[in-house]
């Protein structure tokens, strides 16, 4: 089994090398697919727009994974404006399968999904910390010097109303809870000084 696979890979490599050596881009040059399949590239070839002669490995991978006849059938079933995206997808999946015969592109997708999950957890943690800080629940760090703690405590006392206001706006805009700070008519309630009313 391993011997036949090695022989197949050697045959593909030799054909690709031959295509690179003998094909030059330009008018009249057969596309990479027809060159690989050792056939004449006729006008209207379904492969020609998507497998240029200077990219023989692209078609070699697609042919190895999907088969030329299956790709031909797929392209003929699609509208012309859909074919380029289809070939790009096939080429990506085929290259991933050649690099990773077991998982193919699923392995790369799994890695990206794990990264998204990890980053989402970090984002949720950051939002929670921001909310705690805005609501004044974050205390003075214990690692601060003794001389800095009283000054920071005094500063925190002066900024509590601002934190409270920030906490209110966080809930108002992010959580969409319109029950706080609005009267029966749905307009924002204002205090005597013109600032928004913040529930106690």
UniProtKB/TrEMBL annotation:
**Where is each LOB domain found?**
29-130
Which PROSITE patterns does this chain map to?
LOB
Q: Which InterPro entries match?
A: LOB
Superkingdom is Eukaryota
Supply the Pfam families for this chain: LOB
Q: Which family does it belong to?
A: Belongs to the LOB domain-containing protein family.
Can you say what this protein is called? LOB domain-containing protein
Record the organism. Oryza sativa subsp. japonica
